[in-house]
Each structure stands twice: as structure tokens, then as C-alpha cells.
Specification:
Mean pLDDT: 87
Shape: globular
Largest sheet: 6 strands, mixed
Helix content: 25-40%
Structural class: alpha/beta
CATH class of the domain at 2-97 and 172-253: Alpha Beta
Strand order of the largest sheet: 6-7-8-3-9-10
Order of helices and strands: HEEEHEEHEHHHEHEHEEHH
Low-confidence stretches: 1-5, 115-119, 251-255
Radius of gyration: 18 Å
Number of strands: 10
CATH topology of the domain at 2-97 and 172-253: Rossmann fold
CATH superfamily of the domain at 2-97 and 172-253: P-loop containing nucleotide triphosphate hydrolases
Length: about 260
């Protein structure tokens, strides 16, 4: 994966978003390498979720450019970005509670195959879609729960299903917003292992408050403060950065 590893998966230049007189995102520049987990951290109100919304196309930027493997994404709607391989998970769940795990994954597979929702009920005999859904279920560790109604899943299993729905969209870059939120230690460990394994296939941009998870996962980190990039570097560089300690991490978290 050497040559791909060196490629820039996501390039962001001068990204801005204002809400009235408040600058939510201020001239953000980022370069995220292919095959990396790149964590975005910062205090509450730093603009992390806004940044993911701008990258995914859920929010329109006031200025700036976004490139996915050199292909311009700015000016494109969210669905066009998904089709190009820039996919977001976790901010708003897209799980259908009344459907089973397998049925949910089949819907996601069919979307990727550019089929209409009306095809869902006819798809019971669609072996290709079912097989693809089973492959994703195994990928996210839900193969034993494929026939369980989604509303009955544990919190951790539901979060893994959300990852599966995103994977079914065929992402090249996966934007993950607080994947460990509300999880216990064991569930967090399972999610960390899953995200780590995703690097074999795609690039992950991770917003996460659990700093233990961030330090375990991240190849590179960017610190946002008041909508602007304070620092970008390796885990070691960020932990040793005096400005970052003062603005966010605190001495106790960097020992």
C-alpha cells in the first residue's frame, strides 16, 4: 500500500463558515493522507462537527475548497459526495428500527447500486444484494445478529451497524463523528479495533472526545480551537505541543 499511503485522500483549503457574526470555521487547511486515521480534536465549541458537516456537504461553506483524491467536492451536494466516496456516519443515524440488521444493510447496498427504495421488498430474492449485506455484517462483527430487529440491538451493536451502513456506501474517506459516544469500556474496545481495521481499506477522519481512543487510533491529529487549526502533527507532536496543552489537552492528559 506504499504508493497509496503517500497519496492525499482529502485536501481542504481555506474552509470558512459563519453564523451571523460568529466564525464557526475559520480558514481551515487540511491534508489527510490515504490509509490514515486522522483525528480532529478540540474543546467544545471548537467547530469539529461543523467541519465534518462542511466536508460531507450537509452544510454549505461560505468559502473554501474540498478535494477528494484531487477531485473537487466543493459545490457538490451531500449525495454527490457520497457517490464519489466521501461518506459520514454517526451524526444522525440512518438505521430503520423496524428492519433487521440484514435488511438495513440490504437497503444501504441497494442505495449504492442506485436502486430506488421501492425495490426493497422485491429484493428478498436478490441474492447479490443479500450476499453483499452479509459480507458487510461480517466485516463489522454483526454476522450473529443479522436477523435481529435493529431496535433491539445494544448501543455498541447499533453503532457497529451504523459503520456497516456507511461501509455499504463504498467510502474512500469515512467521516466519523463521536463513534465511542455512550459506550462502555468493552464496547469502546470493539469499536477501536474495528476502526483500526478499516485503515486497510479506506481513510478515516475521526472526531472523538475519548482521548484514550484517539491516541490509540490516530496516525495524525489536528487540533481545532475557536474554528481555526491550532496544530497538526503526529500523536507525539500534539501531546508535546505547549499551545495544545494550554488550549485543550491539559497536563494531566499528556503524561
Amino acid at each position: 500500500m506504499g504508493r497509496e499511503q503517500a497519496a492525499v485522500a482529502l485536501s481542504v483549503k481555506g474552509l470558512k463558515k459563519n453564523y451571523g457574526g460568529l466564525a464557526a470555521t475559520r480558514d481551515v487547511d487540511l491534508e489527510i493522507a490515504a490509509g490514515h486515521v486522522h483525528a480532529i480534536i478540540g474543546p467544545n465549541g471548537a467547530g469539529k462537527t461543523t467541519l465534518l458537516s462542511l466536508l460531507s456537504g450537509a452544510l454549505a461553506a461560505d468559502a473554501g475548497e474540498v478535494y477528494l483524491f484531487g477531485q473537487p467536492m466543493h459545490g457538490h451536494a451531500e449525495q454527490a459526495r457520497v457517490a464519489a466516496g466521501l461518506v459520514r456516519s454517526f451524526q444522525i443515524t440512518s438505521v430503520f428500527d423496524e428492519l433487521s440488521v440484514l435488511e438495513n444493510l440490504q437497503v444501504a447496498v441497494q442505495r449504492q447500486q442506485h436502486r430506488s427504495y421501492g425495490f426493497f421488498h422485491a429484493s428478498a430474492s436478490d441474492r447479490a444484494a443479500r450476499d453483499a449485506a452479509m459480507t458487510v455484517a461480517r466485516r463489522v462483527g454483526l454476522e450473529k445478529l443479522v436477523h435481529q430487529r435493529s431496535s433491539q440491538l445494544s448501543h455498541g451493536a447499533r453503532r457497529r451497524l451504523d459503520v456497516g451502513l456507511a461501509i455499504a456506501c463504498g467510502p474512500r474517506v469515512l467521516l466519523m463523528d463521536e463513534p465511542m459516544a455512550g459506550m462502555g469500556h468493552e464496547e469502546s474496545g470493539d469499536m477501536i479495533a474495528l476502526i483500526q481495521s478499516l485503515k486497510e481499506e479506506l481513510t478515516v477522519v475521526l472526531v472523538e472526545h475519548d482521548m484514550e481512543a484517539v491516541f490509540a487510533l490516530a496516525d495524525r491529529m489536528t487540533v481545532l480551537v475557536q474554528g481555526a487549526v491550532l496544530a497538526t502533527g503526529s500523536v507525539e507532536e500534539i501531546r508535546a505541543n505547549a499551545e495544545v496543552k494550554l488550549a485543550y489537552l491539559g497536563e494531566e492528559e499528556t503524561q
